[in-house]
TrEMBL record:
InterPro entries referenced in this protein's UniProt entry, alphabetically: FHA_dom, Kinesin_motor_CS, Kinesin_motor_dom, Kinesin_motor_dom_sf, P-loop_NTPase, SMAD_FHA_dom_sf
Entry binding sites for ATP: 61-68
Domain Kinesin motor residues, every copy: 1-317
GO cellular component, one term: microtubule
Keywords: ATP-binding, Coiled coil, Microtubule, Motor protein, Nucleotide-binding
GO BP of this protein: microtubule-based movement
UniProt-recorded name of the protein: Kinesin-like protein
Domain of life: Eukaryota
Homology family: Belongs to the TRAFAC class myosin-kinesin ATPase superfamily. Kinesin family.
GO molecular function terms listed in the Swiss-Prot or TrEMBL record: ATP binding; microtubule binding; microtubule motor activity
Lineage: Eukaryota, Metazoa, Ecdysozoa, Arthropoda, Hexapoda
Pfam families to which the protein is assigned, alphabetical: FHA, Kinesin
Length: 532
Protein backbone atom coordinates (compact mmCIF):
# COMPACT_ATOMS: atom_id res chain seq x y z
CA UNK A 1 0.00 0.00 0.00
CA UNK A 2 1.37 3.42 -0.83
CA UNK A 3 0.47 6.73 0.73
CA UNK A 4 0.69 10.03 -1.02
CA UNK A 5 1.08 13.03 1.21
CA UNK A 6 0.53 16.48 -0.17
CA UNK A 7 2.10 19.26 1.84
CA UNK A 8 1.03 22.74 0.98
CA UNK A 9 -0.62 25.66 2.67
CA UNK A 10 -3.94 26.09 1.06
CA UNK A 11 -6.56 26.52 3.74
CA UNK A 12 -7.63 30.11 4.17
CA UNK A 13 -7.30 29.81 7.97
CA UNK A 14 -3.66 28.76 7.70
CA UNK A 15 -2.92 31.57 5.29
CA UNK A 16 -4.72 34.09 7.51
CA UNK A 17 -2.57 32.99 10.43
CA UNK A 18 0.62 33.59 8.39
CA UNK A 19 1.51 29.95 8.99
CA UNK A 20 4.92 28.81 7.80
CA UNK A 21 5.68 25.56 6.01
CA UNK A 22 7.66 23.27 8.30
CA UNK A 23 7.28 19.90 6.49
CA UNK A 24 8.75 19.47 3.03
CA UNK A 25 8.31 16.36 0.84
CA UNK A 26 10.81 15.53 -1.85
CA UNK A 27 9.99 12.18 -3.48
CA UNK A 28 10.35 9.63 -0.71
CA UNK A 29 12.21 12.09 1.50
CA UNK A 30 10.42 14.02 4.24
CA UNK A 31 12.15 17.02 5.69
CA UNK A 32 11.05 18.60 8.99
CA UNK A 33 12.26 22.18 9.25
CA UNK A 34 13.60 23.28 12.63
CA UNK A 35 10.84 24.34 14.95
CA UNK A 36 12.11 27.13 17.14
CA UNK A 37 10.95 26.07 20.63
CA UNK A 38 12.49 29.11 22.34
CA UNK A 39 10.79 31.69 20.11
CA UNK A 40 7.52 29.84 20.53
CA UNK A 41 7.53 29.24 24.30
CA UNK A 42 10.54 30.92 25.88
CA UNK A 43 9.64 34.41 24.71
CA UNK A 44 6.13 33.99 26.19
CA UNK A 45 7.68 33.14 29.55
CA UNK A 46 9.87 36.25 29.49
CA UNK A 47 6.92 38.44 28.48
CA UNK A 48 4.93 37.00 31.40
CA UNK A 49 7.75 37.72 33.86
CA UNK A 50 7.99 41.35 32.69
CA UNK A 51 4.22 41.79 32.94
CA UNK A 52 4.19 40.40 36.51
CA UNK A 53 2.57 37.01 35.86
CA UNK A 54 3.82 33.75 37.34
CA UNK A 55 4.93 31.26 34.71
CA UNK A 56 5.88 27.62 34.63
CA UNK A 57 7.33 25.34 31.97
CA UNK A 58 7.58 21.64 32.61
CA UNK A 59 8.91 18.94 30.35
CA UNK A 60 7.16 15.58 30.59
CA UNK A 61 7.97 12.34 28.78
CA UNK A 62 9.44 8.88 29.06
CA UNK A 63 13.05 8.38 30.05
CA UNK A 64 15.55 9.28 27.34
CA UNK A 65 13.05 11.27 25.27
CA UNK A 66 14.96 14.58 25.57
CA UNK A 67 13.49 16.49 28.53
CA UNK A 68 16.83 17.57 30.01
CA UNK A 69 18.09 18.33 26.51
CA UNK A 70 15.04 20.58 25.95
CA UNK A 71 15.20 22.34 29.32
CA UNK A 72 18.94 22.63 29.99
CA UNK A 73 20.56 21.55 26.70
CA UNK A 74 24.29 21.18 26.30
CA UNK A 75 27.14 23.71 26.10
CA UNK A 76 26.95 23.56 22.29
CA UNK A 77 23.18 23.74 22.10
CA UNK A 78 21.57 25.61 25.00
CA UNK A 79 18.14 24.59 26.24
CA UNK A 80 15.18 26.68 27.33
CA UNK A 81 16.44 27.52 30.85
CA UNK A 82 19.73 29.18 29.84
CA UNK A 83 18.08 30.87 26.86
CA UNK A 84 15.26 32.28 28.98
CA UNK A 85 17.78 33.55 31.56
CA UNK A 86 20.02 35.12 28.92
CA UNK A 87 17.13 36.89 27.22
CA UNK A 88 15.72 38.00 30.57
CA UNK A 89 18.97 39.80 31.39
CA UNK A 90 19.30 41.42 27.96
CA UNK A 91 15.74 42.74 28.33
CA UNK A 92 16.60 44.00 31.80
CA UNK A 93 19.61 45.85 30.40
CA UNK A 94 17.33 47.59 27.90
CA UNK A 95 14.77 48.32 30.64
CA UNK A 96 17.41 49.83 32.93
CA UNK A 97 18.21 52.37 30.23
CA UNK A 98 14.62 53.54 30.32
CA UNK A 99 14.63 53.85 34.12
CA UNK A 100 13.30 50.50 35.38
CA UNK A 101 15.06 48.56 38.15
CA UNK A 102 15.09 44.83 38.77
CA UNK A 103 15.82 42.27 41.43
CA UNK A 104 16.30 38.63 40.47
CA UNK A 105 16.76 35.64 42.76
CA UNK A 106 17.36 32.04 41.87
CA UNK A 107 16.72 28.81 43.69
CA UNK A 108 17.29 25.31 42.39
CA UNK A 109 15.99 22.13 44.03
CA UNK A 110 15.52 18.50 43.21
CA UNK A 111 12.91 16.05 44.43
CA UNK A 112 14.66 12.74 44.81
CA UNK A 113 12.77 9.78 46.28
CA UNK A 114 10.11 12.21 47.54
CA UNK A 115 12.69 14.26 49.43
CA UNK A 116 13.58 17.87 48.60
CA UNK A 117 17.23 18.80 48.25
CA UNK A 118 18.72 22.24 47.75
CA UNK A 119 21.01 22.03 44.71
CA UNK A 120 22.63 25.38 45.50
CA UNK A 121 23.52 24.95 49.15
CA UNK A 122 26.79 23.53 50.36
CA UNK A 123 24.86 20.75 52.05
CA UNK A 124 22.87 19.18 49.19
CA UNK A 125 22.60 15.86 51.06
CA UNK A 126 20.29 17.38 53.67
CA UNK A 127 16.53 17.12 52.92
CA UNK A 128 14.26 20.09 53.41
CA UNK A 129 10.67 20.32 54.62
CA UNK A 130 7.77 21.42 52.45
CA UNK A 131 5.30 23.65 54.28
CA UNK A 132 2.22 25.59 53.31
CA UNK A 133 1.76 29.30 53.93
CA UNK A 134 -1.93 30.24 54.37
CA UNK A 135 -1.70 32.98 51.73
CA UNK A 136 1.41 32.27 49.68
CA UNK A 137 0.85 28.51 49.36
CA UNK A 138 3.39 25.65 49.52
CA UNK A 139 7.07 26.47 49.90
CA UNK A 140 10.32 24.76 50.85
CA UNK A 141 11.56 25.77 54.26
CA UNK A 142 15.19 27.00 54.33
CA UNK A 143 15.67 26.71 50.58
CA UNK A 144 18.57 28.99 49.63
CA UNK A 145 17.81 31.94 47.34
CA UNK A 146 20.62 33.58 45.43
CA UNK A 147 20.67 37.14 44.22
CA UNK A 148 21.89 37.32 40.63
CA UNK A 149 22.75 40.50 38.81
CA UNK A 150 23.85 39.23 35.42
CA UNK A 151 23.81 36.16 33.22
CA UNK A 152 27.22 34.99 34.49
CA UNK A 153 25.83 34.83 38.05
CA UNK A 154 22.87 32.75 36.95
CA UNK A 155 25.00 30.48 34.78
CA UNK A 156 27.20 29.78 37.77
CA UNK A 157 24.07 28.74 39.74
CA UNK A 158 22.91 26.47 36.89
CA UNK A 159 26.29 24.79 36.55
CA UNK A 160 26.63 24.28 40.30
CA UNK A 161 23.10 22.90 40.61
CA UNK A 162 23.43 20.58 37.61
CA UNK A 163 26.61 19.13 39.10
CA UNK A 164 24.72 18.32 42.31
CA UNK A 165 21.72 16.77 40.55
CA UNK A 166 21.21 13.03 40.93
CA UNK A 167 21.76 11.22 37.65
CA UNK A 168 22.63 7.63 36.82
CA UNK A 169 23.24 5.47 33.81
CA UNK A 170 20.32 3.22 32.81
CA UNK A 171 19.72 1.01 29.78
CA UNK A 172 17.50 3.76 28.32
CA UNK A 173 19.74 6.78 28.97
CA UNK A 174 23.45 7.10 29.82
CA UNK A 175 22.78 10.17 31.95
CA UNK A 176 19.27 9.65 33.22
CA UNK A 177 17.85 12.24 35.65
CA UNK A 178 16.73 10.33 38.72
CA UNK A 179 14.97 13.34 40.21
CA UNK A 180 12.55 16.12 39.31
CA UNK A 181 14.42 19.44 39.17
CA UNK A 182 12.78 22.84 39.71
CA UNK A 183 14.77 25.94 38.76
CA UNK A 184 12.94 29.01 40.06
CA UNK A 185 13.46 32.66 39.17
CA UNK A 186 11.87 35.26 41.41
CA UNK A 187 11.79 38.44 39.42
CA UNK A 188 10.81 41.89 40.69
CA UNK A 189 10.46 44.81 38.33
CA UNK A 190 9.98 48.37 39.56
CA UNK A 191 10.01 51.90 38.23
CA UNK A 192 7.75 54.78 37.34
CA UNK A 193 5.32 54.72 34.43
CA UNK A 194 6.27 57.24 31.80
CA UNK A 195 2.93 58.84 31.09
CA UNK A 196 1.83 59.63 34.67
CA UNK A 197 4.94 58.98 36.78
CA UNK A 198 3.10 56.30 38.80
CA UNK A 199 5.20 53.87 40.87
CA UNK A 200 4.88 50.33 39.54
CA UNK A 201 6.24 47.14 41.07
CA UNK A 202 5.41 43.61 40.00
CA UNK A 203 6.70 40.23 41.13
CA UNK A 204 6.81 37.11 39.03
CA UNK A 205 7.80 33.56 39.91
CA UNK A 206 9.02 31.45 37.03
CA UNK A 207 9.35 27.71 37.62
CA UNK A 208 11.34 25.81 35.00
CA UNK A 209 10.88 22.12 35.63
CA UNK A 210 12.75 19.13 34.26
CA UNK A 211 10.81 16.06 35.35
CA UNK A 212 12.38 12.66 35.77
CA UNK A 213 11.25 10.32 32.99
CA UNK A 214 8.49 7.77 33.33
CA UNK A 215 9.95 4.30 32.92
CA UNK A 216 8.99 0.67 32.70
CA UNK A 217 11.21 -1.49 34.90
CA UNK A 218 11.48 -4.18 32.20
CA UNK A 219 12.62 -1.66 29.56
CA UNK A 220 15.17 0.09 31.79
CA UNK A 221 16.41 -3.16 33.31
CA UNK A 222 16.40 -1.40 36.70
CA UNK A 223 17.23 -3.28 39.88
CA UNK A 224 18.14 -2.27 43.46
CA UNK A 225 18.54 1.49 43.99
CA UNK A 226 17.50 2.31 40.39
CA UNK A 227 14.28 0.31 40.88
CA UNK A 228 13.45 2.20 44.09
CA UNK A 229 14.10 5.53 42.32
CA UNK A 230 11.97 4.41 39.38
CA UNK A 231 9.09 3.50 41.71
CA UNK A 232 9.20 6.96 43.35
CA UNK A 233 9.44 8.68 39.97
CA UNK A 234 6.48 6.72 38.60
CA UNK A 235 4.39 7.29 41.72
CA UNK A 236 4.84 11.07 41.55
CA UNK A 237 4.13 11.08 37.82
CA UNK A 238 0.94 9.08 38.39
CA UNK A 239 -0.09 11.70 40.98
CA UNK A 240 0.76 14.45 38.46
CA UNK A 241 -1.52 12.61 35.99
CA UNK A 242 -4.35 12.43 38.56
CA UNK A 243 -3.95 16.13 39.41
CA UNK A 244 -4.01 17.06 35.72
CA UNK A 245 -7.14 14.91 35.13
CA UNK A 246 -8.93 16.36 38.15
CA UNK A 247 -8.01 19.93 37.18
CA UNK A 248 -9.13 19.35 33.59
CA UNK A 249 -12.45 17.96 34.84
CA UNK A 250 -12.85 20.89 37.22
CA UNK A 251 -12.08 23.41 34.43
CA UNK A 252 -14.64 21.75 32.15
CA UNK A 253 -17.23 21.90 34.90
CA UNK A 254 -16.52 25.59 35.41
CA UNK A 255 -17.30 26.03 31.72
CA UNK A 256 -20.51 24.04 32.08
CA UNK A 257 -23.51 26.33 32.03
CA UNK A 258 -25.80 24.15 34.13
CA UNK A 259 -24.54 24.68 37.68
CA UNK A 260 -26.81 21.96 39.11
CA UNK A 261 -24.67 19.23 37.56
CA UNK A 262 -21.49 20.65 39.13
CA UNK A 263 -19.74 18.70 41.88
CA UNK A 264 -16.62 19.62 43.78
CA UNK A 265 -13.64 17.85 42.23
CA UNK A 266 -10.96 16.83 44.73
CA UNK A 267 -7.44 17.67 43.50
CA UNK A 268 -4.87 15.32 45.13
CA UNK A 269 -1.99 17.87 45.23
CA UNK A 270 -0.66 16.55 48.52
CA UNK A 271 -0.19 12.99 47.24
CA UNK A 272 3.29 13.84 45.98
CA UNK A 273 5.88 16.50 46.79
CA UNK A 274 6.06 17.47 43.11
CA UNK A 275 2.35 18.28 42.76
CA UNK A 276 2.21 19.92 46.16
CA UNK A 277 5.07 22.29 45.32
CA UNK A 278 3.69 23.03 41.85
CA UNK A 279 0.13 23.49 43.15
CA UNK A 280 -0.18 27.09 41.98
CA UNK A 281 1.54 26.41 38.65
CA UNK A 282 -0.73 23.48 37.85
CA UNK A 283 -4.08 24.87 38.87
CA UNK A 284 -3.87 28.47 39.96
CA UNK A 285 -2.17 31.78 39.44
CA UNK A 286 0.28 30.91 36.66
CA UNK A 287 0.71 30.79 32.91
CA UNK A 288 1.82 27.21 32.52
CA UNK A 289 3.28 25.38 29.54
CA UNK A 290 3.70 21.61 29.33
CA UNK A 291 6.22 20.22 26.86
CA UNK A 292 5.55 16.62 25.87
CA UNK A 293 8.81 14.89 24.92
CA UNK A 294 8.27 11.74 22.87
CA UNK A 295 10.47 9.09 21.30
CA UNK A 296 10.21 8.54 17.55
CA UNK A 297 10.91 4.76 17.95
CA UNK A 298 8.13 2.21 17.30
CA UNK A 299 9.09 0.20 20.38
CA UNK A 300 8.04 3.19 22.51
CA UNK A 301 4.56 3.37 20.98
CA UNK A 302 2.77 2.72 24.29
CA UNK A 303 4.77 5.34 26.22
CA UNK A 304 4.36 7.89 23.44
CA UNK A 305 0.60 7.37 23.41
CA UNK A 306 0.47 7.75 27.19
CA UNK A 307 2.49 11.02 27.02
CA UNK A 308 0.19 12.41 24.35
CA UNK A 309 -2.87 11.47 26.42
CA UNK A 310 -1.32 13.32 29.38
CA UNK A 311 -0.75 16.38 27.21
CA UNK A 312 -4.26 16.18 25.79
CA UNK A 313 -5.76 16.24 29.27
CA UNK A 314 -3.43 19.04 30.41
CA UNK A 315 -4.68 21.15 27.48
CA UNK A 316 -8.11 21.37 29.11
CA UNK A 317 -6.89 22.99 32.31
CA UNK A 318 -7.85 26.65 32.53
CA UNK A 319 -5.68 28.60 34.96
CA UNK A 320 -6.43 32.06 36.29
CA UNK A 321 -3.20 34.06 36.13
CA UNK A 322 -3.25 37.55 37.60
CA UNK A 323 -0.61 40.28 37.72
CA UNK A 324 1.21 40.20 41.08
CA UNK A 325 1.33 43.87 41.94
CA UNK A 326 2.95 45.25 45.08
CA UNK A 327 0.06 46.01 47.54
CA UNK A 328 1.43 49.49 48.36
CA UNK A 329 1.74 50.39 44.70
CA UNK A 330 -1.85 49.22 44.20
CA UNK A 331 -2.97 51.44 47.08
CA UNK A 332 -1.08 54.44 45.64
CA UNK A 333 -2.78 53.89 42.27
CA UNK A 334 -6.20 53.65 43.89
CA UNK A 335 -5.54 56.82 45.90
CA UNK A 336 -4.43 58.68 42.78
CA UNK A 337 -7.63 57.61 41.03
CA UNK A 338 -9.69 58.91 43.93
CA UNK A 339 -7.69 62.16 44.00
CA UNK A 340 -8.31 62.67 40.26
CA UNK A 341 -12.05 62.12 40.75
CA UNK A 342 -12.19 64.55 43.69
CA UNK A 343 -10.28 67.18 41.72
CA UNK A 344 -12.66 66.76 38.80
CA UNK A 345 -15.60 67.08 41.18
CA UNK A 346 -14.25 70.37 42.53
CA UNK A 347 -13.34 71.71 39.07
CA UNK A 348 -16.75 70.92 37.56
CA UNK A 349 -18.50 71.96 40.73
CA UNK A 350 -21.21 69.36 40.26
CA UNK A 351 -21.92 69.02 43.96
CA UNK A 352 -23.94 71.44 46.10
CA UNK A 353 -21.80 74.32 47.38
CA UNK A 354 -22.04 73.26 51.05
CA UNK A 355 -20.41 69.91 50.27
CA UNK A 356 -17.26 71.52 48.93
CA UNK A 357 -15.33 72.05 52.19
CA UNK A 358 -15.84 68.36 52.98
CA UNK A 359 -14.64 67.38 49.50
CA UNK A 360 -11.62 69.64 49.88
CA UNK A 361 -10.77 68.14 53.25
CA UNK A 362 -11.04 64.59 51.83
CA UNK A 363 -8.88 65.61 48.89
CA UNK A 364 -6.16 67.00 51.18
CA UNK A 365 -6.26 63.90 53.36
CA UNK A 366 -5.94 61.56 50.35
CA UNK A 367 -3.15 63.67 48.84
CA UNK A 368 -1.19 63.56 52.10
CA UNK A 369 -1.72 59.78 52.37
CA UNK A 370 -0.61 59.28 48.77
CA UNK A 371 2.50 61.44 49.28
CA UNK A 372 3.60 59.49 52.37
CA UNK A 373 3.04 56.12 50.67
CA UNK A 374 4.91 57.17 47.51
CA UNK A 375 7.85 58.44 49.57
CA UNK A 376 7.97 55.23 51.60
CA UNK A 377 7.84 53.10 48.47
CA UNK A 378 10.58 55.16 46.76
CA UNK A 379 12.79 54.90 49.84
CA UNK A 380 12.24 51.11 50.13
CA UNK A 381 13.09 50.56 46.48
CA UNK A 382 16.16 52.83 46.69
CA UNK A 383 17.40 50.79 49.67
CA UNK A 384 16.80 47.53 47.79
CA UNK A 385 18.88 48.79 44.88
CA UNK A 386 21.64 49.95 47.23
CA UNK A 387 21.76 46.54 48.92
CA UNK A 388 21.92 44.92 45.48
CA UNK A 389 24.83 47.12 44.49
CA UNK A 390 26.64 46.44 47.75
CA UNK A 391 26.13 42.69 47.35
CA UNK A 392 27.40 42.89 43.80
CA UNK A 393 30.36 44.90 45.04
CA UNK A 394 30.90 42.24 47.70
CA UNK A 395 30.97 39.62 44.92
CA UNK A 396 31.01 36.37 46.87
CA UNK A 397 31.75 33.45 44.58
CA UNK A 398 32.75 29.83 44.90
CA UNK A 399 35.98 28.63 43.41
CA UNK A 400 36.61 24.90 43.74
CA UNK A 401 36.51 24.16 47.45
CA UNK A 402 37.10 27.78 48.36
CA UNK A 403 34.95 30.90 48.59
CA UNK A 404 36.35 34.04 46.99
CA UNK A 405 35.25 37.53 47.92
CA UNK A 406 35.66 39.87 44.98
CA UNK A 407 35.08 43.24 46.61
CA UNK A 408 35.72 46.44 44.71
CA UNK A 409 35.19 48.69 47.75
CA UNK A 410 37.93 49.51 50.31
CA UNK A 411 37.50 47.22 53.33
CA UNK A 412 38.98 45.87 56.56
CA UNK A 413 39.41 42.11 56.99
CA UNK A 414 39.48 40.84 60.58
CA UNK A 415 42.55 38.86 61.67
CA UNK A 416 41.37 37.02 64.74
CA UNK A 417 43.88 35.83 67.32
CA UNK A 418 41.21 33.82 69.17
CA UNK A 419 41.99 30.13 68.47
CA UNK A 420 38.32 29.16 68.86
CA UNK A 421 36.82 31.70 66.46
CA UNK A 422 35.92 30.31 63.02
CA UNK A 423 34.12 33.10 61.09
CA UNK A 424 35.71 35.63 58.74
CA UNK A 425 34.76 39.29 59.27
CA UNK A 426 34.85 41.92 56.56
CA UNK A 427 33.84 45.57 57.03
CA UNK A 428 33.29 47.79 54.02
CA UNK A 429 34.34 51.38 54.43
CA UNK A 430 31.80 53.82 53.12
CA UNK A 431 32.47 57.05 51.27
CA UNK A 432 32.67 59.73 53.98
CA UNK A 433 33.11 58.72 57.60
CA UNK A 434 33.06 55.25 59.21
CA UNK A 435 32.92 55.43 63.01
CA UNK A 436 34.66 52.66 64.97
CA UNK A 437 34.10 52.13 68.70
CA UNK A 438 32.43 50.02 71.36
CA UNK A 439 28.69 49.49 71.85
CA UNK A 440 28.69 52.01 74.67
CA UNK A 441 28.73 54.81 72.11
CA UNK A 442 25.39 56.33 71.15
CA UNK A 443 24.41 56.32 68.33
CA UNK A 444 25.94 52.86 67.72
CA UNK A 445 29.20 53.10 65.74
CA UNK A 446 29.34 51.75 62.17
CA UNK A 447 31.87 49.14 63.29
CA UNK A 448 31.37 47.83 66.82
CA UNK A 449 34.45 46.36 68.52
CA UNK A 450 34.91 44.77 71.91
CA UNK A 451 37.93 43.65 73.90
CA UNK A 452 40.69 45.25 75.92
CA UNK A 453 41.63 48.85 75.14
CA UNK A 454 38.62 49.70 72.90
CA UNK A 455 37.20 53.14 73.69
CA UNK A 456 33.50 54.02 73.09
CA UNK A 457 34.69 56.30 70.24
CA UNK A 458 37.94 54.68 69.23
CA UNK A 459 38.69 56.12 65.80
CA UNK A 460 37.18 57.20 62.50
CA UNK A 461 38.14 56.26 58.96
CA UNK A 462 37.44 58.96 56.41
CA UNK A 463 37.23 57.82 52.79
CA UNK A 464 37.36 60.58 50.18
CA UNK A 465 38.03 60.12 46.48
CA UNK A 466 39.53 56.69 47.08
CA UNK A 467 41.90 57.80 49.87
CA UNK A 468 41.28 56.35 53.37
CA UNK A 469 42.61 58.21 56.41
CA UNK A 470 42.48 56.87 59.97
CA UNK A 471 41.86 59.46 62.71
CA UNK A 472 42.49 58.09 66.23
CA UNK A 473 40.29 59.46 69.06
CA UNK A 474 42.22 61.13 71.93
CA UNK A 475 43.90 58.45 74.06
CA UNK A 476 42.95 55.56 71.72
CA UNK A 477 45.50 52.89 70.89
CA UNK A 478 45.66 52.64 67.08
CA UNK A 479 48.66 50.83 65.65
CA UNK A 480 49.53 50.97 61.96
CA UNK A 481 52.11 48.37 60.89
CA UNK A 482 53.35 48.14 64.49
CA UNK A 483 53.68 51.94 64.87
CA UNK A 484 51.45 53.62 67.50
CA UNK A 485 49.67 56.54 65.85
CA UNK A 486 49.54 59.96 67.46
CA UNK A 487 47.60 61.65 64.65
CA UNK A 488 45.83 61.02 61.31
CA UNK A 489 47.45 58.42 59.03
CA UNK A 490 46.75 57.43 55.42
CA UNK A 491 45.91 53.73 54.94
CA UNK A 492 47.44 51.88 52.03
CA UNK A 493 46.78 48.49 50.45
CA UNK A 494 47.80 45.57 52.67
CA UNK A 495 48.61 47.58 55.81
CA UNK A 496 47.89 46.01 59.23
CA UNK A 497 45.88 47.81 61.91
CA UNK A 498 45.66 46.99 65.59
CA UNK A 499 42.80 48.81 67.35
CA UNK A 500 42.93 48.48 71.13
CA UNK A 501 44.89 45.42 72.26
CA UNK A 502 43.15 42.61 70.40
CA UNK A 503 41.36 43.82 67.24
CA UNK A 504 43.65 43.27 64.29
CA UNK A 505 42.69 44.06 60.67
CA UNK A 506 44.21 44.11 57.25
CA UNK A 507 43.19 47.03 55.06
CA UNK A 508 42.43 46.28 51.39
CA UNK A 509 41.92 48.85 48.69
CA UNK A 510 41.09 46.96 45.47
CA UNK A 511 41.58 50.04 43.25
CA UNK A 512 45.03 50.72 44.72
CA UNK A 513 45.96 47.03 44.48
CA UNK A 514 44.94 46.94 40.79
CA UNK A 515 47.06 50.04 40.14
CA UNK A 516 50.06 48.54 41.94
CA UNK A 517 49.65 45.26 40.03
CA UNK A 518 49.68 47.20 36.79
CA UNK A 519 52.82 49.01 37.83
CA UNK A 520 54.35 45.66 38.81
CA UNK A 521 55.30 46.97 42.23
CA UNK A 522 53.25 44.57 44.38
CA UNK A 523 56.16 42.20 44.75
CA UNK A 524 58.42 45.06 45.86
CA UNK A 525 55.86 46.10 48.45
CA UNK A 526 55.52 42.55 49.79
CA UNK A 527 59.28 42.40 50.15
CA UNK A 528 59.25 45.66 52.09
CA UNK A 529 56.72 44.28 54.55
CA UNK A 530 58.71 41.11 55.05
CA UNK A 531 61.86 43.07 55.79
CA UNK A 532 59.98 45.12 58.42
N1 LIG B 1 16.82 17.03 20.08
C1 LIG B 1 17.94 16.37 20.38
N2 LIG B 1 19.04 16.48 19.62
C2 LIG B 1 20.16 15.83 19.93
N3 LIG B 1 20.31 15.00 21.00
C3 LIG B 1 19.25 14.84 21.79
C4 LIG B 1 18.00 15.52 21.54
N4 LIG B 1 17.14 15.16 22.51
C5 LIG B 1 17.80 14.33 23.32
N5 LIG B 1 19.05 14.12 22.89
C6 LIG B 1 20.05 13.24 23.51
O1 LIG B 1 19.37 12.07 23.96
C7 LIG B 1 19.87 11.64 25.23
C8 LIG B 1 18.71 11.57 26.23
O2 LIG B 1 18.18 12.87 26.40
P1 LIG B 1 17.82 13.48 27.82
O3 LIG B 1 18.82 13.11 28.85
O4 LIG B 1 17.50 14.90 27.60
O5 LIG B 1 16.48 12.64 28.09
P2 LIG B 1 15.50 12.77 29.32
O6 LIG B 1 14.12 12.73 28.77
O7 LIG B 1 15.84 13.93 30.17
O8 LIG B 1 15.80 11.40 30.07
P3 LIG B 1 15.62 11.01 31.64
O9 LIG B 1 14.16 11.09 31.93
O10 LIG B 1 16.13 9.60 31.73
O11 LIG B 1 16.43 11.96 32.41
C9 LIG B 1 20.93 12.64 25.63
O12 LIG B 1 22.20 12.11 25.29
C10 LIG B 1 20.62 13.87 24.79
O13 LIG B 1 21.79 14.62 24.52
Amino acid sequence: MTFTVGVHLERELEKDMNAKLIVQMDGKKTRLLTVKVFSDLGVDVIDSAFEGYNACVFAYGQTGSGKTFTMMGSPECQGLIPRICRQLFSRMAAGKESGSSYRTEVSYLEIYNERVKDLLSGDAGHSLRVREHPKLGPYVQDLSRHLVSDYDDIQECMTRGNQQRTTASTQMNDVSSRSHAIFTLTFVRAGYTRHNNMPCETLSKVHLVDLAGSERADATGATGQRLVEGAHINKSLVTLGSVISALAESSQQADNRTPKTKKNVFIPYRDSVLTWLLKDSLGGNSKTIMIAAISPADCNYGETLSTLRYANRAKNIINKPTINEDPNVKLIRELRDEIDKLRAQITHNTNPVEAEPAVLATLQRKEAQEKVLTEKWTEKWRETQQILQEQKALGLRKSGLGVVLDSDMPHLVGIDDNLLSTGVTLYHLKEGETVIGSEELSPTPDIVLSGAGVLPLHCRVVLREGVATLLPAPGAQCWLNTVLLDGPAKLSQGCILLLGRTNMFRYNDPAEAAKLRQEGSASVMNLTWNLK
